[in-house]
Task: structure prediction
Amino acid sequence: MLIAGSYQYPTMESVIYGKPAAEALREEAERLGAKRVYLIVSRTMNSKTDEIEKIRKGLGERHAETFDGVPQHTTREAVVLIAKRAKEAKADLVVAIGGGSVVDAAKIVLMCMEHEIFEQNGLDGFETTPERRFGQFRTPKVRMIAIPSTLSGGEYNSGALVTDTRRKLKQIFNHPMMMPRSIILDPAMTKNTPEKLWLGSGTRAMDHGIEAICSSRPNVLVDAVCQQGLRYLHDGLRRTRSNPDDEAARLNCQLGSWLSAFGLQARVPMGASHAIGHVLGGTCDVPHYFCTAVMMPSVLRYNRPATEAAQTAVAAALGAPGRDAGEAFAEFVAELGLPRTLAEVGVAEDRFELIGKNAMLSIFARANPQPIREPGDIVKILRFAA
Result:
C-alpha cells in the first residue's frame, strides 16, 4: 500500500540563531523597514535582567513602547489592553520576548489591532471550533517577531491560546499570518528562566513532536524532523539540568523545540494531550508547562492501539528503543523532577467531568488517533493520570 500525504509550508520567513538577540532584531527591523517597534515582554526579564534594555538600545529610535504585564494563560483582558496601547503607539512591528503566554498575546494583538477590538466581547465569534478551523479574521497589516525564553514552541504555529476568565475557558484563535515573520533563538535569553519552567516547557515542546509522530494524519518529513527534535530535547534537557550554564545544551534545546514543532507548521493534527492540556490550564489553572509531564504517558497508553508503530519510533527518539513509549516518557519526567500525576498539580477527580466536557470543545479531541467520541473517553485518560 502506498503512503499518501502533503506538507504545507508555513508563513514564516526565517529562524535566526548564532547571534545576540539585540543584534538580530535590529537587523530584522531594518530589513522590514519598521519605524515603530512595540515590545511585549516578560516582566521578569524586563525588571530583573538587562536583556530587554539591550534590545531597546539596539533598536534606538525604532523602539515605540514596552509592555510587560501579560498574565499566565494570556487573558482576553490583557490582550485587548495591549492592542489599544499598540494602536495608539502606531506600532508597525510587534515583538514578543518571553514565554508562551507572551508569544500568544502578541499573535492575537495583531488581530485586535487589525479589527480594532479593544473590548473582550469583540473576540466572540473569531475562536476556532471543531466546525470552524479559522476565524474570519482579515490578514493583519502589522506582523510580529518572536524571541522565546522558554521551549514551549508556540511561536512555530499560527494559533494563539487566549483565556476567557469569565468562563474559565481557554480558546484557540488562528490565522496563517498570525505566525511570526521571524523567530530569533539566543540561549542568553533563556539563562534566567526558572528551572521548572525551562524543563517543563521542554516537555511541552516534546508534546508537539510526539503528537505529530502519532498523528491521525502523519507526514514523512514531519516524522523525521520531529524524531530529531525529540533527540535534541532529550539530550539538552538532561544536560541543562546538570549544568544550567551549558549554553550549547540550551541552544540544542531551542533547536529541539523548533524541530519538534514541524507538525504544527505543517498543520498535522495534534491530539488528546493538546486538548486536555489546554483545559487543565484554562479551567484548572495548572501551569501550561506541567501539562505534558502529567498527561503524555496516559495519552500514549490510551492511543497505543492506534499508534503502536509510531510509539516505537517515539521510544527510540527518547533513548529507549524497544521500550514502551509511555513508560519511557514517564521515567524521563521523573528524572527531570517534574510532577507526574494530576494530584500533584492540584486536580482532583471531582474536576474530571468538567475537564471532559470542555476538552470535547477542542478540535484536537476530534483529531486524536484513537477515537474520542464523548467526554467519558477523556475521563478515562484522566483516570490513568490521577
In short: The chain has two domains: 14-188, 194-384.
